[in-house]
Write a structure and sequence with these properties.
Strand 9 and strand 10 form a beta hairpin. It contains 13 helices and ten strands. The chain has a domain of 141 residues: P-loop containing nucleotide triphosphate hydrolases (Rossmann fold), CATH 3.40.50.300. The strands form two sheets. The chain has a six-stranded mixed sheet with strand order 6-7-8-3-9-10, with helices on both faces. Strands 2-1-4-5 form a four-stranded antiparallel sheet, with helices on one face. Helix 6 packs across helix 7 and helix 7 runs parallel beside helix 8. By secondary structure, the chain is an alpha/beta fold. The protein is 40% helix and 21% strand. The longest helix has 18 residues. Bound molecules: adenosine-5'-triphosphate (ATP). Adenosine-5'-triphosphate binds next to helix 1.
């Protein structure tokens, strides 16, 4: 349903953030995008909905060539792409319900939404979605009174209110604790399955990506260096994606007593233990 062919991005500074990206995402597939800082993950996600302009190549969403759109047609196409951000991007002084309804902005027009007059069916659907994401009790709360996990649930409900075909998710768990991160990833995964929604999730936590994605794409310096199943992502592949320097944190051998007290690099340990255990859904 989404096809990127020969997509490249060169920023005005000269940085080549993406080089010749070839990617096809079928309906309903949850794809995790991993890679070191600066690899181009956010740029790729933002090129799809044209928050960043690709400088090369074609991006097709079903029958629509997205790179050629402008004005009204671009706004229309963006409605079919729900965006979920790392920092939730909620309006703090508005209620949960109002934040969710702001997902209708593309449909009802700025002034109508500004004046907070939403169609009845949008309000009914927003109630349903807030129930589905586990927040029926928080409808009238102000967004700034919510926890990080609750805010992310509001962000998910808001993205779904526009009935997208595709979810673009940028570091959804970056500010959350491990348990809440898992709950959010599980929720996104379940919603994609229920609605046959495809998703691209930019995520730093490799273990989470392995547990909740159908497919993992590894970017390094703007190029795809891995595209496969979570179970295929072994330590050799991780080294290819992240590089020896960052990845090989194995300390010098030490005696047993010293080894017991030694600090373990948590991300490395977590990823390796999850690989050894196999990806558990
Ligand atoms: N607005 C910009 N202007 C110039 N260069 C940029 C801009 N945004 C990103 N870049 C550059 O493009 C490259 C890719 O950045 P991008 O933010 O897409 O990487 P990322 O993989 O998402 O990184 P992170 O995981 O740290 O968010 C980097 O070299 C970055 O410096």
């Amino acid at each position: 349903m989404l096809t990127l062919s020969g997509v490249g991005k060169r920023y005005p500074t000269g940085d080549r953030a993406l080089k010749d990206i070839e990617l096809t995402l079928p309906k309903g597939q949850v794809m995790a995008l991993i890679g070191p800082s600066g690899a181009g993950k956010s740029t790729l996600i933002r090129c799809v909905n044209r928050l960043v302009e690709p400088t090369q190549g074609s991006i097709r969403l079903e029958d629509t060539e997205l790179t050629k759109l402008s004005g009204h047609k671009l706004r229309h196409a963006r409605r079919s792409m729900g965006m979920i951000f790392q920092e939730y991007a909620l309006v703090d002084r508005l209620t949960v319900m109002e934040n969710v309804l702001s997902g209708q902005l593309g449909y009802v027009g700025f002034w109508r939404s500004f004046l907070r007059r939403y169609p009845q069916e949008a309000v009914v659907e927003a109630f349903r979605l807030l129930e589905r994401v586990g927040l029926p009790h928080a409808i009238d709360k102000r967004a700034d009174a919510l926890s990080g996990g609750q805010r992310q649930r509001v962000g998910i409900a808001r993205a779904l209110l526009q009935s997208p075909k595709l979810l673009l998710v940028d570091e959804p768990t970056a500010s959350l604790d491990p348990k809440t991160s898992r709950q959010i990833m599980r929720l996104i995964r379940e919603l994609c399955a229920e609605r046959e929604l495809a998703a691209i999730i930019n995520i730093h936590d490799v273990a989470l990506a392995q547990q909740f994605a159908d497919r993992i794409v590894g970017l390094r310096a703007g190029e795809i260096v891995f595209d496969g199943l979570p179970s295929e992502l072994d330590s050799e592949m991780l080294t290819t994606i992240y590089g020896e320097e960052e990845w090989d944190t194995t300390p010098e051998p030490m005696d047993d007593e010293a080894a017991d007290d030694a600090p373990v690099d948590p991300p490395y340990a977590r990823v390796m233990s999850s690989i050894e255990a196999g990806a558990v859904r």
